[in-house]
Amino acid sequence: MADFLTGIAFFMIIEGLVYALAPSILKRMAEMLPQIPESQLRVSGLVAVALGVVMVWFIRGG
User: Transmembrane region positions (predicted)?
Assistant: First the structure.
């Protein structure tokens, strides 16, 4: 459970940094989001999940 909460904390840190350091870029990305096809968003999300799982696996000594 501690690892899960640490992961959530890191996620919040990274999200906070994006909002704090590059709010204009974040706004532009949010404006472009409706123009991107759902299938492309879905594939991008699945790729991000897969990369995250692989990274955790390697970090933990897979």
Answer: 6-22, 43-59
